[in-house]
C-alpha cells in the first residue's frame, strides 16, 4: 500500500513536469517560422522595434495573455476548439500502478501494471472542449442538436481566456493560421443567422474573435493574411456598433456598446501596427486608407469614446499616401466642418462621399450634431422670425415629421401658422435628452439604413 502511494505521487510529479516542458522539447519550436516576417530590425514611427513588443507591452493585449516568452510558437490544433491530446510516454519515465489503471487528476492517465513488459503508456490530456461539455458551458451555436452538454469539433469554438500562464501553453492548444482563418469565416457567417437575436450572435462572435486575436499574437503572425483577418474583425465591430444601437436602449445596451467600442479601438491599434510592420517602402494596402480614416472619425465626439493618442500626433506617423487618399480627405473634411459649425456641408459631404463602414462610425454622432444645430438656431435666431421647419429638414436631411419629433425631444415647441410649421427661437427649454436619441432616417443614404 505504501509503495502504491509512492508510485502515484511519482506519477503526479512526472506528468506535471512533462506537461510544463512539453513545448520546450517539441519539434515545433523554432526561431524563424514561415509566418513571421523579418521585420524585427526595421525602424517604425513609434518607440517600439517590433509589433510583438508593441502588442505585448500594450495594456489591451497584455490583458489577452500575450508574452514574449512565447516567441516562435506555432499552433498545431486542427480544430476550432482544442480536442483531447494523446501522448505516448516511455514506460521507463512514467510508472502506472497495477492497482490503479486509471488515475484522474485533471489528466487522465491510462496504462498497464508496471510488472507487464510494455514500452509506452498512453496519457490523455483533457481538452477545453471536453471540460466545457462537463461544465455545460456551451453557447447556443455550439450545442449538438440543442444539447447544452454535448458539442462536436465542427461546432465548438475556442473561448477567450483572459489570463494565460506561459508554462501551461502547448502548441496543441493554439490554432495555426489556416485554422484561424476558417474559424473567422465560420463566425462571420453567423451574422446572417435569423434564428437568434443580434445581441446573442454578437456576444458569441465578440468573445471568439478575441480568442482568434489572442492566438495570432501568441504566434507572432505578421503577414498579409493576418492583416486581412484583422480588417474583417474591425469591420465586425464597426457594423456591430450600428446594429446594436438599433436593437434598443437601456443599461445593458449601453454596456454592450461600450465594450464593443473598446474592442474596436484595440483591434484598430493592432491593425495599424501590422500595417507599419509589414510595409515595404511606400506601398499602401488596398483597404488601409479606409481603415485609417476610422480613427479620425472616432474624434467626432472624443468625450464619448476616448482614443489612445491625440489626432495631431497620430497624423504625424501616417504615411503621406494615406493622408492624400480620398478616404482620409473625407474624414478630415467631416471633422473640420463639424468644428467650424458648417452643418450643411457636414451632412452634404456625408451623403456624397461616405462609404458604408465610415457611415457606421459616423451614425452615432449624427443625432448629436442635429441637436447641436437646433441649439445654434435657437440661440442665434431672431425671435420675431421663426425658422421654417421645411428649411430645417432640408439642412438636417430629415423628414419634416422626424424634425418635429426631434425638436420635441430636445424641449423645443413647434408652432403652426396657416399650415406652415415654424421653429420659434430664443426658447429657454432646450435640453439634450437624458435617455439618448431615437433613430432617425438620413435622406440620401437610404441604402445604408436597411
From TrEMBL:
Pfam families the UniProt entry points to: SAC3_GANP
Classification via Gene3D superfamilies: 1.25.40.990
Region named Disordered: 1-67
Biased amino acid composition, Low complexity: 16-26
Name of this protein: SAC3/GANP/THP3 conserved domain-containing protein
InterPro entries: SAC3/GANP/THP3, SAC3/GANP/THP3_conserved
One CC-aspect GO term: cytoplasm
SAC3/GANP/THP3 conserved domain mapped to chain residues: 126-415
Biased composition (Basic and acidic residues): 51-65
BP GO annotations: mRNA export from nucleus
Amino acid at each position: 500500500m505504501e509503495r502504491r502511494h509512492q508510485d502515484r505521487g511519482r506519477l503526479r510529479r512526472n506528468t506535471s513536469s512533462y506537461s510544463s516542458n512539453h513545448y520546450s522539447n517539441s519539434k515545433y519550436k523554432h526561431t524563424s517560422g514561415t509566418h513571421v516576417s523579418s521585420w524585427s530590425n526595421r525602424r517604425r514611427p513609434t518607440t517600439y522595434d517590433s509589433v510583438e513588443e508593441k502588442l505585448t507591452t500594450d495594456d489591451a493585449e497584455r490583458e489577452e495573455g500575450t508574452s514574449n516568452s512565447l516567441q516562435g510558437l506555432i499552433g498545431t490544433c486542427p480544430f476550432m476548439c482544442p480536442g483531447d491530446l494523446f501522448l505516448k510516454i516511455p514506460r521507463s519515465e512514467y510508472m502506472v500502478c497495477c492497482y490503479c489503471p486509471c488515475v484522474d487528476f485533471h489528466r487522465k492517465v491510462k496504462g498497464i501494471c508496471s510488472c507487464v513488459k510494455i514500452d509506452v503508456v498512453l496519457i490523455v490530456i483533457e481538452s477545453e472542449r471536453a471540460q466545457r461539455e462537463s461544465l455545460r458551458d456551451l453557447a447556443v451555436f455550439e450545442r449538438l442538436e440543442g444539447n447544452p452538454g454535448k458539442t462536436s469539433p465542427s461546432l465548438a469554438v475556442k473561448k477567450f481566456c483572459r489570463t494565460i500562464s506561459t508554462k501551461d501553453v502547448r502548441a496543441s492548444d493554439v490554432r495555426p493560421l489556416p485554422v484561424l482563418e476558417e474559424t473567422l469565416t465560420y463566425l462571420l457567417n453567423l451574422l446572417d443567422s435569423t434564428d437568434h437575436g443580434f445581441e446573442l450572435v454578437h456576444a458569441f462572435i465578440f468573445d471568439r474573435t478575441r480568442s482568434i486575436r489572442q492566438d495570432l499574437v501568441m504566434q507572432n503572425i505578421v503577414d498579409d493574411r493576418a492583416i486581412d483577418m484583422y480588417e474583417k474583425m474591425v469591420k465586425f465591430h464597426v457594423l456591430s456598433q450600428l446594429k446594436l444601437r438599433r436593437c434598443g436602449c437601456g443599461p445593458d445596451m449601453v454596456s454592450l456598446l461600450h465594450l464593443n467600442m473598446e474592442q474596436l479601438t484595440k483591434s484598430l491599434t493592432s491593425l495599424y501596427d501590422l500595417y507599419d510592420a509589414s510595409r515595404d517602402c511606400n506601398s499602401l494596402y488596398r483597404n488601409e486608407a479606409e481603415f485609417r480614416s476610422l480613427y479620425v472619425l472616432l474624434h467626432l465626439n472624443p468625450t464619448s469614446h476616448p482614443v489612445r493618442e491625440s489626432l495631431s500626433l497620430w497624423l504625424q506617423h501616417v504615411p503621406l499616401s494615406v493622408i492624400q487618399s480620398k478616404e482620409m480627405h473625407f474624414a478630415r473634411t467631416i471633422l473640420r466642418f463639424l468644428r467650424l459649425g458648417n452643418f450643411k456641408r457636414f451632412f452634404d459631404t456625408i451623403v456624397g462621399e461616405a462609404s458604408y463602414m465610415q457611415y457606421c462610425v459616423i451614425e452615432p454622432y449624427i443625432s448629436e450634431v442635429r441637436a447641436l444645430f437646433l441649439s445654434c438656431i435657437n440661440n442665434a435666431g431672431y425671435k420675431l422670425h421663426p425658422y421654417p421647419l421645411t428649411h430645417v429638414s432640408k439642412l438636417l436631411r430629415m423628414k419634416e415629421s422626424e424634425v418635429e419629433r426631434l425638436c420635441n425631444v430636445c424641449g423645443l415647441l413647434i408652432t403652426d401658422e396657416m399650415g406652415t410649421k415654424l421653429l420659434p427661437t430664443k426658447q429657454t427649454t432646450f435640453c439634450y435628452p437624458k435617455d439618448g436619441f431615437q433613430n432617425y432616417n438620413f435622406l440620401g443614404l437610404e441604402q445604408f439604413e436597411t
